[in-house]
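Anyone able to model this chain together with nickel (II) ion?
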Amino acid sequence: MLTKQTEIELSNEQVEEIVSWRRYLHQHPELSFQEYKTSAFLYETLCTFPNLEVTRPTETSVLAVLKGAYSGKVIGFRADMDALPIQEETGLPFASENEGVMHACGHDGHTAILLGVAKALSAKQEKIHGEIRFFFQHAEEQLPGGAREMVAAGVTEGVDYVFGLHLSSLTPVGQLTITPGAATSNSDMFHVTIKGKGGHSSQPENTIDPVVTSAQIITSLQTVVSRITSPKDELVVSVTTLQAGDAVNVIPEQVKMGASVRSFSQDVRKRAVEAIEQIIKGVSEANGCQYELNYTYGYDSVMNDTKATAIAVEAIRRKLGEGAYVESEAIMGGEDFSAFSNVIPGCFVFVGACSLENQTPAPHHHPKFLIDEAALADGANMFLAIAEDMVLE
Ligand code: NI
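re: yes, here you go
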């Protein structure tokens, strides 16, 4: 900890600029791995700030490095920038201009916040002991995720701590929440095809019925949670898609199923995968069916590091008030910030963005998703406070 602290107060103009960036990004959303205009806008804007080395680690991501005047810790801040294939229905004056594409998860806000933080800190270069890296990440919404690609490009080498945030449309504005330890889930899925032998529905003895087999598999899969893992383990296995034949007098050749699998620990995840395959294999064989299983490992669970969490909690309380910090429970959602926090101690913070008057807020990924823009200053102030505590003189 440095002895003297420089407090950065965002001026009204700086907050307004963050809001205007967010609105511009909101109006011009781009899908995952296609953030060409967004990343060009970020690159050009960052190049107008002093003291930054701005590069493109991948086709649509941007890295800005701020090397301080003195040596010290290296910290990273990450924002994601992609939008979703959703037709916006908010009626906002700055609603999406791109048909069928919408910033319905708040990533426009994350990007605008980080841009504002980069601008404010780049002006303080002579007071910085260490280095700050700004990760403007593409493709959070689509596997395999942009975070993995940025990490593979080497952006995290030498970084001591990494911090990220997510606006939350369901949390009251003014509240910032962190889950110590596992904060988001391992978010996997699988697709399986059960292959039998089709035939006439009146002659089941001449067929191998994949429908009956699939029904047994779906029922047996319920035991992965209820009998194979402990009640203390957190796990969800949901079969969510099912496609069989299309004529009532025909036993089909095959059935296709899809399922979502969510867990927190890597051990429970591993046991779930083994049990799922064992059940599908065993039940298929018992019925004379063949099966083809494709298991997709999604994003790893975000594990908040104890030290990084303490740094973030302290920064929130100091800058935004004692009551601003609220400890929260883990969510069963996926987030590829884990690609960063798997390799560097990190902390991921949810920033309340539900307007206090809004009694029926829309969830994330909804065509009517809205944020209270007052949350943008909260997010920026949190990142600034972390920088003040860790690398500013
Ligand atoms: Ni998101």
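Residues 186-299 form a domain with the Alpha-Beta Plaits fold (CATH 3.30.70.360).
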